[in-house]
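Long-time lurker, finally posting.

We've been working with Bacterial alpha-L-rhamnosidase N-terminal domain-containing protein (Hoylesella buccalis ATCC 35310) and I want a structural starting point before designing mutants. I don't trust myself to interpret raw outputs, so I'm hoping someone here can both generate the structure tokens and explain anything notable. Sequence follows.
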Amino acid sequence: MTMLCVLIAHSQSFHTHWIATQQVDSTSEIWFRQQIWLQELPVFASATIATTGKVDVYINERNVSTASWMPCRMGNDNLPVSINMEVTRFLQPGINTIAIWYSPTFPHINQQQMAFSLCGRMKNGEKRAFCSDDGWLTRRANVSLTRDGGERYDANAYPLKWNSDDVDWGLWQPARNTNMPAIASSYHLTGYPAVKRNMTYTPRYFDLVGNGVYYQFDKTFKGQLRITLRDAKRGQKIYIDGLEYTCTGEMDEQACRKFTVADHRRVLINGDQNFKNEQIQSVEGIEIVPYFHESLQY
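Top reply, 14 upvotes:
Generated this for you. Predicted structure of Bacterial alpha-L-rhamnosidase N-terminal domain-containing protein:
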């Protein structure tokens, strides 16, 4: 994909370093977070994130992109990619919480997970920068990759909002600085390659088969399945065509992959001994497509 190529290599340092969780493994998705104090708001601020995987970036609990995730990657591509975003509108006076959800592109160990830089221009023309270092905190997310290209989602694993100020600090540990300069694109871009939800499909019919249900869509699509469940038991496991979901036991809950996609047409949904067909309230097929996300420029 040509729009991805311009972001890779032939690049230069933006004076920040790669960081990673203390113990990198091949399947864990990782949460990163840091807080910065702003005495006054900059008139313009941009964030640059470099990653070898896929990320969602939040500032003060707001996703800075309308994309499902970024960057768009094809196959087992894990080359470092750098993305620049305008983030002025997400900042506030005082404490600002920056939170990043990272996933490996595929199950493998990569010591370079992400690097982040926030640069601001103040009213007096002064420029200030906040860069990733070992002062960031990290912990494993409640979602991880599986060896067959799916995901394992434990909805009970972390009860607090991971990207908010209301966290249990004792469950987080310092990030590890890999002491390698991160890269930044040497191109001036007005956007970045990402993926988004395109079409939502409803299955045409379903078939009951033993301890499960087959749902049939009109055509094959690449994307994710979003399932609404009712009256599932806490800890109950649901298997959704490559997604293993552990239920919270709330009256209604939704199960969906985070960073992976698959080809879906005839899909099987089943579960453990507590699974009942009537727990499935709705099934939606969400088509995921690549696109070029336009960034605001000032």
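Before you design anything, note these points.
The domain at 195-293 is CATH 2.60.120.260 (Jelly Rolls).
The longest helix spans residues 2-5.
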